[in-house]
């Protein structure tokens, strides 16, 4: 059985790009079965207002193994055999626009374009395909906690609660 092994990540970032409280960063990730690069540009306050903007582009690939039941298994012992291997590649861009409400939280809308591709590397257990994904996400985050990371008062609410 092949394992993921060590996955290394390098994050290079300028947290005060152009001296205007803007963020510019590049994240590189590499491992035996995982690879990726992401660039990101964030404007935390557009023209000294509470409006925010984020633009990111990325490409990543992951090698995924498929399995099948061992035909020689018994009721006391069962095993899985590697059946195939495929590469899932995802490339895309996302643009987020929103507004901060002083220290209370924020509301954002994100538009995301992605190309997904599955290529067979060996064996069976997958279908090669390619498709485009376009998504629109609205999110709200309210935070009235008095300090980080261990608040004494306040509440934190994120809607929707799931993360990508």
**Helicity range:** under 10%
**How many alpha or pi helices?**
0
* Strand line-up across the major sheet: 1-2-3-4-5-6-7-8
Mean of residue pLDDT?
87
Content-based structural category: mainly beta
Q: Radius of gyration in whole Å, from Cα?
A: 21 Å
What letter string, H or E per element, gives the SSE order? EEEEEEEE
Terminal Cα span = 28 Å
Brief overview, please?
With 164 residues, the chain is mainly β. Helices cover 0% and strands 66% of the residues.
Walk me through what this model shows.
The structure is a single chain. The chain is mostly beta strands and 164 residues long. It has strands spanning 7-17, 22-31, 34-43, 51-69, 80-100, 105-123, 129-143, 156-159. It has an eight-stranded antiparallel β-sheet, with no helix packed on it. Strand 6 and strand 7 (129-143) form a beta hairpin. It is elongated. The mean pLDDT is 87.
Label this structure with key terms:
single chain, 164 residues, 8-stranded antiparallel beta sheet, 66% strand
Layout of helices and strands, plus pairs?
Blueprint: E1 7-17, E2 22-31, E3 34-43, E4 51-69, E5 80-100, E6 105-123, E7 129-143, E8 156-159
Antiparallel strand pairs: 1-2, 2-3, 3-4, 4-5, 5-6, 6-7, 7-8
């Amino acid at each position: 059985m092949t394992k993921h092994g060590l996955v290394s990540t390098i994050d290079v970032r300028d947290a005060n790009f152009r001296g205007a409280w803007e963020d510019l960063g590049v994240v590189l990730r590499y491992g035996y079965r995982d690879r990726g690069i992401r660039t990101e540009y964030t404007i935390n306050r557009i023209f000294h207002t509470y409006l925010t903007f984020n633009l990111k582009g990325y490409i990543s690939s992951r090698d995924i193994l498929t399995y099948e039941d061992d035909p020689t298994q018994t009721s006391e012992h069962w095993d899985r055999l590697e059946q195939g291997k495929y590469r899932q590649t995802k490339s895309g861009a996302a643009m987020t626009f929103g507004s901060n409400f002083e220290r209370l939280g924020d509301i954002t809308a994100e538009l995301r374009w992605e190309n997904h591709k599955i290529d067979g590397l060996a064996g069976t257990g997958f279908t090669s395909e390619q498709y485009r994904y376009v998504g629109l996400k609205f999110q709200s985050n309210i935070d009235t906690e008095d300090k980080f990371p261990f608040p004494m008062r306040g509440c934190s609410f994120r809607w929707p609660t799931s993360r990508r």
